[in-house]
Specification:
Layout: H1 2-86, E1 96-102, E2 109-118, E3 124-125, E4 131-136, E5 141-143, E6 145-146, E7 155-156, E8 161-169, E9 180-186, E10 194-197, E11 213-214, E12 218-219
Parallel strand pairs: 6-11
Antiparallel strand pairs: 1-2, 2-8, 3-7, 4-5, 4-9, 8-11, 8-12, 9-10
Length: 221
């Protein structure tokens, strides 16, 4: 009987111990789950706040970027307008009074000066090479080649004049193969021409029309 009671008490003690252990483990698990849940909630809240701040910063950055872009475009447009306004249009043939004269410096060097006076109401540019053809007595026309020279900026206000010349060697033998009668002139960057008389008294051309050269315009001032 004594052994039976002791065994019974031992069994009750073991059962009680197991019960307490089970209860303690359950509380620990619950606390851990609660802590995990709290940490997750805090992390989610921080992440949400961080995201909101990040989005706000991005919008501010975009706003600054957009403002700068608009400013650059406006500035570019303004500069473009200023540059365009500062440019002169090319002189039109109809606004130019054109004339040709003999300007030979000596008996061996032939030179025809062709002047262009701006009789229009606005400033214009005559920069570059004029197109020139010489018409012969047999009614053929020959284009004149450009001389080796760089064009100079030639801007003409109303009333201003520019000049360019034709240069060639004079044939004093009396056996020249050319008989020029007319000069067809097309101002730089124009398509309309004027016809001028070959200046009286100009020396005969030595060689052929391919030996004549035209030089760029320049102002007379």
């Amino acid at each position: 009987m004594k052994y039976t009671r002791i065994s019974a008490f031992a069994a009750l003690g073991v059962a009680a111990t197991l019960s307490l252990t089970a209860c303690g483990g359950g509380d620990s698990g619950t606390d851990a789950a609660a802590k995990d849940s709290s940490s997750a909630s805090t992390s989610s809240s921080s992440s949400s706040d961080s995201g909101s701040k990040s989005e706000g910063g991005s919008e501010a950055g975009d706003a600054k970027s957009g403002s700068g872009s608009d400013t650059e475009v406006q500035a570019g447009a303004a500069n473009s307008g200023t540059k365009s306004a500062g440019k002169s249009t090319f002189c039109k043939t109809e606004d130019l009074a054109i004339n040709a004269v003999d300007a030979a410096p000596d008996k061996t060097s032939g030179r025809i000066n062709i002047s262009m006076v701006n009789r229009g109401s606005t400033t214009c540019s005559a920069t570059g090479f004029a197109g020139v053809d010489i018409k012969d007595a047999d009614n053929t026309s020959s284009p004149i080649e450009r001389g080796h020279a760089q064009p100079r900026v030639t801007t003409l206000k109303p009333g201003d004049s520019a000049v360019f010349d034709l240069a060639y060697d004079i044939d004093s033998s009396g056996e020249s193969l050319t008989s020029p009668t007319k000069i067809l002139v097309t101002p730089p960057n124009e398509t309309h021409s004027v016809t001028l008389d070959w200046p009286a008294g100009a020396g005969d051309i030595k060689g052929a029309y391919t030996d004549v050269q035209v030089y760029p315009t320049h102002t007379t001032k």
